[in-house]
Amino acid sequence: MKIDEIRIQMYLSEIRRNGLALRDLLERNELVPDSVALKAAKYILIELAEAMSNTIQHLLAKDKGVAVSGYVDAVVKAFENGLVDKNLFDRLKPFFDFRNSLVHRYWRIDDRRLIDNIKNGKDDFDLFISQVESYLDKKRLNQ
């Protein structure tokens, strides 16, 4: 099967846009507990997880014939199949675990901890894009 590069570029653009929006909220110091900005950041994080998972699922299915069964499984199989390196895997796995908590148990999320996690992980989205693009570049060279 063939990778749909237009689809992948759409996902990566969405990750880029949302990553910039998150950075903007950080730079303006708008992320404070129980704020509208923090509620917006939570939704941005969900969109980021969706786009990243969609990217992984598409690449694994089309290039490797590998199916995934959820967000955490997607990032595990992305690492196992060489889409992301160990460092990024170690950073993304807790993010995808957190995504499930954010969606299903959002009322239990500690706002201060979330803000710290956003600050510490803000570069992970760009790193994900970079590693996906490198993977695609290697695929193109080998064709």
List the SSEs and their pairings:
Elements: H1 5-27, H2 36-64, H3 71-80, H4 86-104, H5 111-121, H6 124-141
Helix pairs in contact: 1-2, 2-3, 2-4, 3-4
Can you walk through the features of this model?
The longest helix is centred in the middle third of the chain and has 29 residues, at 36-64. The radius of gyration is 15 Å and the shape is elongated. Helix 1 (5-27) packs antiparallel against helix 2, helix 2 (36-64) crosses helix 3 (71-80) and helix 3 packs antiparallel against helix 4. It has helices spanning 5-27, 36-64, 71-80, 86-104, 111-121, 124-141. By secondary structure, it is an all-alpha fold. The chain has six helices and no strands. The protein starts with a helix and ends with a helix. The mean pLDDT is 91. The chain has a single domain (5-138), classed as bsu32300-like (Four Helix Bundle (Hemerythrin (Met), subunit A), Up-down Bundle). Helices cover 77% and strands 0% of the residues.
On the 0 to 100 scale, the average pLDDT is 91
β-strand percent reads: under 5%
Query: Level of helix content?
Result: over 70%
Task: Give the C-alpha Rg.
Answer: 15 Å
Rough outline = elongated
CATH overall fold name: Four Helix Bundle (Hemerythrin (Met), subunit A)
The biggest beta sheet reads: none
Model regions low in confidence, pLDDT < 50 over at least 5 residues: none
